[in-house]
Amino acid sequence: MQSYPSVILFFFNFKQREMKISAFFAMVGLAALACSCTQTSQVADYNVVPLPKSIEYQSSEAPFVLSGSTVIVAQDESLQDAAELLSGYITQATGIKTKVSDSADNAASVILLKSAGEEFAHNDPASEAYTITVTPSQIVIEGVTPEATLRGIQTLRKSIAPVKSGSVEFAAVTINDQPEFGHRGAMFDVSRHFFPADSVIKFLDMMALHNLNRFHWHITDDQGWRLPIKGRPELTEKGAYRKETVIGHNTGEYDGKPYTGSYTPEDIVRVREHAKKLGIEIIPEVDLPGHMLAALATYPELGCTGGPYEVWGMWGVSDDVLCAGNPKTYEFIDDILTQLIEMFPESPYIHVGGDECPKVRWEKCEKCQAKIAELGLKSDEHASAEMRLQSHVIMFADSVIRSHGRHTIGWNEILEGGIDTTATIHAWTGENAGVEAARKGHQVVMSPTSHLYFDYYQSSDIENEPEAIGGYVPVRKVYEYYPVPKGLTPEEEKKIVGVQANLWTEYIPEYSQVEYMELPRMAALAETGWGKTANATYNDFLTRVDRLAAHYRNNNYNYAKHVWGVDGTLTTDSAARKVTLTLFTPDNVPLKYSTTGKDGEYKPYEGPVEIDRTSVIYATTGIEGRKDYTDSMTVTKSSFLPVELKYAPHPRYAGHGASTLTDSRYGSRQYNDGAWLGFISTPLVATIPFPQTEEVSEVSLRTCVVTGDWIMDAETIEVEALGADNKWQTVATLTPVQPTEHVQKISTHTLTFSPVQANALRVTVTPAAALPEWHGGAGRPAFVMVDEISVN
Length: 792
Hints:
By secondary structure, the protein is of the alpha/beta class. It has 18 helices and 35 strands. Strand 22 (567-573) and strand 23 form a beta hairpin. The N and C termini lie far apart (74 Å). The model is unreliable at 1-5 and 14-38 (pLDDT under 50).
């Protein structure tokens, strides 16, 4: 095999390229030597994750060969870390040891050139544009900024299979690439469970592999304060300590084991320096004025009741928050944010949280009510006076941050009472929050629970998964998400600056589980944030993920393997009264399926299958170790019929609208899997009109009960029939028995009655007005979750 001079050039400015290359060839043009190579060689594959925007092969040219004689050169000192990174990646993957130098005296070189310093706005995706040019004698990586060059390095790294090799052939090519979105983030909660600096550094490495560039570090919450604060050592001595932790989903049972953990100033510096080396920006978060129980346990005078308080050992949202009428609260916020800014000098954005701040303490607190009066805050149809008081607190925090030349970012609740448009809104409750923020002139980062909460289950087979908070966000759902909501104007669309996946760690006690919950969903996030090419497909993505998984194994990552089994979707067509089954595997191996269960009759899968009757679907490759696919549908007289809802479901639990109740599909035990409708304080009132008069004698529905998450059974269920006389008649009622202890279950409620001729049915499901006395949230309203209404 012919060997060529090994040259890889790194540029940060396109204008320098022509001059630098010609000078370089004048120096090394005669240094090419031919040699025989008997060691194993491999061929690089540029089809990586995320897929570059443009790959143009120069088929007439010979490949570039990387070997042990290749030298990586950083011409400027600021590029030294990038050169060391690439050299380390090559050695880790192949065993090839490349030399890192500060000069291009040797023909076998990799050269990084100094940036000309072009300026870009924050979150401008053009700031990460790079080009990779491969010729027989060199590889040139040109980035418009150091961060852009680092993205090019990751592309080159992933093109190399992690297999021990004597050399790597790179086909002659020109790659032009840049992301679609400037913010591609990952949030890591280290409060609910603590993860030391070494684990955070591993998380950053995992982000870099996927071209992510924003690390959102959630460092404080009700369950522990992990941030070192000068002059306040008690915050990490007392505020980081909880005496025990609840077992499961707020079951009321505790493990009896003390739990603690916090960072030192040296830990913060280590994480900062590593992030900077990888071109990742840190967004540190101190969540306020809610989620502050760990701080209140340390300084009880900052709460409305004065305590005593304890660092929370359970999950959820505490009613105890910072007292917004206490001057000491504002002194505390000023001190904490000022020190946070000093701790993270490279971070232009500081996250203030602002989410899930109950107002029940403020409503009864004399100091808070006095503050409301002092500020002249009033309730109206848009916001309560207490909501506006929260806005006052957030705006104070914003003023502190801006006084230090930084910018505020917060969860979308900070919109409730108004906030300066310089603040970035982190939309997590749904796309509507992002739309509202963009229309008000804010930059927006999209993190909807429906698609980007990586603490949710990634498989519907939860019995064989580590315990999670609930939900269902498989890889496909992440991949198919597009962060720009429909209905925005072109100017409003520009306000959507990116996407971020969030990992809350209530049910994630070990770092290996962090990796499992992130991977390979982080690959889908990378593709979504970087932007898909015009002809990208999910199956093609899975093929590239298959190669990326080799890097997971080479880094000893504990990744989920569901996508390597059979995946499938059931798509309901209500008008045609049928469901379409679509199946696929990442490597397109042959499949067979049954509509009568695992032990039923199988047929070869040759394309989408239409199903119009009750079925238990099972599909398999027949390959041992591969995950099979199973699902079901139940067809009754109400299936596929339109549904009219008197009241809208809670926006977090809206499924796919009213048709969720008649789509023939049952929900899983994960009440936030998109198959359940949730109601609180208002009942579910569903009217189902029949196309012609039907004789009915039975209605059944299911409720998902998760008492630890404040979801009880229905208080009452009523069925009414609309007769030929156009009058409603109650035909059945039921009062389910409520749990007397914490449970997680699905209850089926069947109401039978004498046959009636009906033109329509109306089903009313009333949620419990108040959680029972034995419950930790006693007196607060409960949710009710309903999935399918079946009529026979």
